[in-house]
Amino acid sequence: MLKIGVLLGDDIGLEVVPETVKVMTAAAAVVALDVQWHELPIGRRGHELHGHTMPQETVVALDKCDGWITGPIGHNAYPRNDPTWIMPPLRKKFDLYASVKPVKSYPNLPSLHKNVDIVFLREVSEGMQASGTVVAGSGEFRPNDEISIGTRVVTRRGANRVAREAFEIARTRSRKKVTSVHKEPVYRLVCGMFAEECRKVAQEFPDCKLDEVLVDGFAMKLVMNPQQFDVVVTTNQFGDILTDEGAGIVGGLGLAPGLCVGERHAMAQATHGSAPDIAGKNIANPYAMIMSGKMLFEWLGRKRNEPKAVKAAELIDAAMDKVIAEAKQLTADLGGKATTVQMGDAVAQALRTCGR
Length: 356
Ligand code: ATP
Hints:
Isopropylmalate Dehydrogenase; binds adenosine-5'-triphosphate
């Protein structure tokens, strides 16, 4: 049995997260996977119930879950001065060290390129982001008004575990290729350590191929010929930029799911924000959130050795492909007229037929 937390978040989170739970529940039912759902307050609801946007009660409950689905947090949705800094502390608390972001094109949806199917892994617990690399103080400082200094941290453990996750994912895919993106010739020690760990891990995965591309060249190749890439692993700051570039080449925010993974937990989280401008209108595209939930099933299937969860993820994937190819129940941003609920219903319905 899998225990999955449900954090609705704010604004369109209240609409796209329930569609995700609907689709995941339907997939679990088809494969007879036992899932226990736990709805836990964060964001505005957390503030109303417990006086905090990330209540301690929620953090304690999350620790007992195998993983959770997190809706976007609405930075404008709170009373003045209420804490909105939620996701980075949550990632730190549960040591969610990698952000996994697929970039996939669909034949009938507008995108700069077709036949793109990449999975990015961005290390998110170290690198240049000051708050993530220190227990006290900051990784940035300004000794006087003329100089600012920032640090960049790469550890063997940090590089090794994100590389390992990349190869584990590559192993489940047909091309079985990992591209490690760095700039070792310039950043000999930090990028060098990252590159070394990728090479080390590659030796444990003889069925997969390791390729190495320098980050500047990679940025160009991604724009010109993204089809050549399968799984891509990189450090925090490079990944921050490249994953947005990746989302851009296949259609932008509405089509950008994500999963933050740790050693014990994973958190499904779409790339888009809470989109207050379209909240409450039942028009938000649930794709990114639903596909983030699908990734959680995939991850749980792999880590908890639960083939039914892997199967449930495959069903959601096939159902989404079908709904997009038929183009009858798509939200307005995808060129359709369907509501959020209608698109969610269509995916849930399609997966029941895919499962037969
Ligand atoms: P944040 O600061 O919380 O990341 P943001 O304003 O930078 O938020 P989003 O909230 O993601 O970014 O919204 C940017 C725009 O993209 C919104 O105005 C909205 O119109 C559109 N958008 C975002 N997510 C979706 C979605 N799921 N479906 C349809 N449109 C969306």
